[in-house]
Design a protein that fits this description.
The complex is a heterotrimer of chains A (365), B (481) and C (250). Helix content of chain A is 14%, strand content 45%. Chain A is built from six helices and 19 strands. In chain A, a hairpin with a 2-residue loop joins strand 1 (87-93) and strand 2 (96-103). Chain A is mainly beta and 365 residues long. Chain B is of the alpha/beta class and 481 residues long. In chain B, the strands form three sheets. In chain B, strands 5, 6, 8, 10, 11, 13, 15, 16, 18, 20 and 22 form an eleven-stranded mixed beta sheet that branches. A ten-stranded mixed beta sheet of chain B has the order 4-3-7-9-12-14-17-19-21-23. In chain B, strands 1-2 form a two-stranded antiparallel ribbon. In chain B, strand 3 and strand 4 form a beta hairpin. Helix content of chain C is 39%, strand content 29%. Chain C contains ten helices and twelve strands. In chain C, the strands form three sheets. Chain C has a six-stranded mixed beta sheet, with helices on both faces. Chain C has a four-stranded antiparallel beta sheet with strand order 2-1-4-5. In chain C, helix 6 runs parallel beside helix 7. The two termini of chain C are 34 Å apart. The chains are: A mainly beta (365), B alpha/beta (481), C alpha/beta (250). Chains in contact: A-B, B-C. The B-C interface holds B 1, 3-4, 427-430, 432-441, 443, 447-448, 450-455 and C 48-52, 71-73, 75-77, 81-82, 84, 87-93, 97-99, 101-102, 105-106, 109, 141, 158, 162. Strand 19 of chain A pairs antiparallel with strand 22 (401-410) of chain B.
Amino acid sequence: MNSSVDTLSVTNETSIAEDNIPVDGLQKLRLAALNKFLEKGFPDSKHEEWKYLNLKPISETKYNHRVVSSPLKASDLEQFYDAGNDTVNLVFINGRYCSEFSGHQSHKHPFSIYSLESREAELYLETLRNSEDEPFHALNTAFHQGGIMIHVPDDCRMPMTIHLLYVNDSQNEAVAAHPKCIVVAGKNSAFQVIATYHSLNNFPSLTNTVTEFLIGENAVVEFDIKQNENSNANHISRVYARVQRKAVFDIFTVTMGGALVRNNLEIILSEPNACAHLNGLTVADGYQVVDNHTVVDHASPNCESNQLYKNILDDHSQGVFNGKIFVRKDAQKTNAFQSSKNVLLSNTAVMNAKPQLEIFCYRKN
Amino acid sequence: MSEDLKIIDEVTSGEYKWGFVSNIESENAPKGLSEDIVRFISAKKKEPEWMLEFRLKAFRHWQKMQEPQWANVNYPKVDFQDIIYYSAPKPKKQLNSLDELDPEIKATFDKLGISLLEQKRLAGVAVDAVIDSVSVKTTFRQELSKLGIIFSSFSEAVQEHPELVKKYMGSVVPYTDNFYAALNSAVFSDGSFCYIPKGVRCPMELSTYFRINSAGTGQFERTLIIADEGAYVSYLEGCTAPKRDENQLHAAVVEIYAHTDAQVKYSTVQNWYPGDKDGRGGIFNFVTKRGLCAGERSKISWTQVETGSAVTWKYPSVILKGDYSTGEFYSVALTNNYQQVDTGTKMIHIGKHTRSTIISKGISGGRSNNSYRGLVRIGKQAEKARNFSQCDSLLLGDKCGAHTFPYLECANPTAKVEHEATTSKVGEDQIFYCNQRGISTEDAIGLIVNGYCKEVFNQLPMEFAVEAQKLLAVSLEGSVG
Amino acid sequence: MLNIKNLHASVEGREILNGLNLQVNPGEVHAIMGPNGSGKSTLASVLAGREAYEVNDGEILYHGENLIELSPEERARKGIFLAFQYPIEIPGVSNANFLKTAVNEVRKSKDMDVLDSKDFLKLMKDKMQLVKMDKSMTQRSVNEGFSGGEKKRNEIFQMAMLEPELCVLDETDSGLDIDALRIVSDGINALRDGKRSFIVITHYQRLLDYIVPDFVHVLYKGKIVKSGPKELALELEEKGYDWIKEEVEI
């Protein structure tokens, strides 16, 4: 890319630099990812994956990528808690997990929470390593701090909901938060996870969030995302899921807030009879740009996937849907559906869609 | 299943039947490309100064451009200095009637199943035949000219109707458009020209037959079709080439200009040599085809059956500028062995109430890769525009690939854009069902594939539809020897 | 005409038929009944030569010829017809075109002249009347968008067109209401001419009210465990399959 030189000069001014990455046991991974990012910088619209999304609002903002501490009290967060008795609220402030604000009324829950530096997480960090070529994923790997791994044990059919509550609180500067959360669903487990994203004030922020799932055999997991940040918030989300034999993964992405929002979803149906449902709803107005990118990779036979995305766009807002379905060589008897339906409410709203279907009878790369 | 696969393998690796070389004496330019070559071509054709200027501008622009990389195809880099840019069958003398045509050329066309006059008179088709980029004979000119229709080779049009050529050439595909269009604009040697005057409905199908014959040459023809107000024409294009181990480059430009209430139907059966079973040789088919619906209620319709070429890169498009204008694209693309196709269309909706329809049927066998790439763009002003796209892929084996890259861009709230896509494999169940009724696996695949392509074949003129079905059958046929 | 001896057959490595014997003479109608999973549809598939089904032992003689060595299309051309339980759709191929190809393939194998369009249309008209087929169905794509009843009727129409010697009906009654069942059965009965033989595979007795069999066989665990006259079907209807199972297990 010719333009990477220009964008690099911009990024050099920002805090995307070695000096700012956290110092901990994951240093090696962080450095490698940072270098990967710096090689190419932020992609421009010539890059096929970013054709319809202008990243200048992000690349030209000077964010503080170090984790910023915040003087918040539990009472500040109450408005965001999910009031249900059966909800465990897990709170992330500026990307860092805060155990002091988290938990369940009864102080008991059947799943475990580990730090990403822990021994328990090590194995999964390795298993789930994926496409760090993707620039924002690389940034997340370099800068995430205070991320967690949630482990739901085998056979656990959990009545309570896990609520991942992400709050950005920047008092006087543009904050970049890089939360990372890994969810491991044991065999035959069944449960629901909700993620909500909020801003406490109107400062510009960048949320670059990564959520990774390993869905064990026969497990049934639902993941609901509600993005409701302020109108100066840019939001890049990556959800990656590896769905194993006979497991079911359902995901709902609801985007209401934010200025520039990109939702990347990558689902690998890695073993036979796995199933995934992807649903997305975007309601945008003003100058919002909301870009949903999905990849469903049918890597195994007899798997099923279903995608339904709807955009309602008003004012000058722009919607993007890019849905890829890959069917690999051995994935016989694949069933894959995709539907994107969109409504423009004004003369100035724009919708761009690229419903892409690719069948590789043999693996190209 | 293994048995079925074997048969599918055989079925999909049919021999190419048009691979003969004719012994026609030809006159070639030296290899390579430079301003001198451009001047040489222009001089050979005794072109006026403005034509040479156009070529030189295009050539200078081309030199600054880079080969496009974005298509989903892989092929060895083309060495543009290793190509002969001008090759013409050596005329024995000025032709006055068909009887004086070089007997070898006549024999070539007979072999191809194109009788230049008699059969086509019955069928009512006027033919322009182009060998190695030079038009050798256009039939029915006199009869057409009574209606004011001009149907001639491009170089004749440059001499005889310079005002029309000047006005329309490059108006739909400017030489700056893309790498291969620029190259073509610099070095094109001939092609077809067609003008249908106001209110005239062309009484017969017009047809151009393209043939690459000489080794080491590239073919760069250029076609320009103008339909004036209320005119109608149906235009057919066919092409073949000899079998050679080397790759040969074909970079054509087709421009269609439709005025108010005009209709143009352009049908192609593309059967350039696809290379052998191991992917050696074959034509690189890098073509720019575009129509402009300039006037209100005008209509341009592309139908293509693509079975040949080693690599194809082709997007017949329509710019829907006039209000209530219509664009259509119907395509069957079949790939075998190591063939690669990246084809599709662009429908650019600018005018109000414009409509477009896209029906694409990809069929992949062998180790081939078949990609559909399409753009539907609804501009801000394109009120009540409508598009419907359907993109289907059929896989014949388990070593091939099918890919779709549809881009749908909508900037008008009253527009409606619909896209549907399916991919399927010729089912074991379907084959067994046919077998159980006494139909062999080979014939079963033929039936299933033809059924799958029916919506597109229905769009072809009758005579062509039969040819296309036969061609598909041959492309699917087992190697008989 | 058909003689099956000690037939063992498996699919995906699982043995489904183990030691099946059956003899069918010209003009006879044999009903094969049995509980789910007893091997009824496997027998149909093996007779038609479906590739996934492997014959491990025994023989199938058809007019004295070893059927197992023949390809599915050769069997079809020699007069074996399978009416599918789930007829397959072939989009874009009209019923008429499909049948013209099939009929002419069968004719070619018998050194008969290929029918031209005129003769073919006449034949089609005759046979359509025989099975009360609607004319529009011949122009529609093979089974595409057909209702369950239309699909089954189309099978019988194809059977009439191809004039086979041995017809294997695989659960032809499944998914049919009473009216459709009657129309389909009438079509089949119209094709009973004293020489043509039928193997009628069914789970329920009700089809046999319409197509009256000469023999009823009970298939269980891949073997024919009981044979009898048509009354056996009624007995099965009344008592279910359990008494047979008990009889066999003991």
